[in-house]
Design a protein that fits this description.
about 300 residues, 6-stranded antiparallel sheet, two-stranded antiparallel ribbon, about 10% strand, about 55% helix, 2 domains, alpha+beta
Amino acid sequence: MEHFIVSNNNNKTQQNATSRNKMQQIIHHLLQHPSNSISVEYNGRKKMNPYAIKNKYLFTQERIESGWHSVPQFLKGLKNDGFPSGTKIYLRIPNGSTSKVIGQPITLQFSGDIKNNEFMTQEASHNESAVLSSQMQPIQSSQPYYGMGNPMMGVHPAESRLEAITAKYEDLKERYDDLKSQCKDLQSTERQLKEENNSLKLEVNTAEKHKELAILQADLNRKSFMDSDAMKTIAANLAPALPQIISGQPAQIGMGTASNLSSEKKQFIDFITSDRVTDADVGNVYKIYKHMVKNQDFAAAVQQLIIQFQIP
């Protein structure tokens, strides 16, 4: 059975130790996280995982054990699958919906290839043609390609190029899907921010309206009877008489004079000019009188109240 190593040191013990170290490095990487994976590549051609639906060029611990029983058995079988010495193992970790390479790739070197190379180097000094003949002998593959191509690889050059192009396409497609997903997330975030912004604008506008209404209501509450239409009418009628009232002279109200006023009117003038009467009291009296003139039913009701309470 062939083994793989990662150096050309002639010391067999050192080669085996290096091989074990690299094997342990690969196994340790896969065991660190279930989503950690490796990819296999030789001269730009990637090994495809027949058991994977997505990320067809990645091999996790679970996929390797389900298809090849163990990591060592998977690695040792690469040569028969057309991935001889020089094949590189890339250690990968998750990166969104895809993966990224960490560290330097591990280069495989199968022990049988080293023995063949040593044998061909010895024979080269004796017979160049024999060396060339030994180099051209095919390496047995479990799935050889029977067309024109490199028998060492067991893959037709055109097929190898197609697989490389396919692998590149799959990588680009995964990257595109990842960017597309990120774009959708950003669009969703932008839409949410716009909705929040519109909601905040509406709240600000509503608050400003409430503030304006509160100010208007406060102004109306502070507005006294002196600013009402009723008091303006009374003030207009009393304006000519104010100088006489202040000087103690007989007041002239409207078109009349103090001499031709009835006692009831004089009493009313004395009443509204009294310090005990507020502007609100004058306003209420004016409203009652105003509605008594306009509304006979109201006047009759007021008259009934006067009788009921025996107001002299």
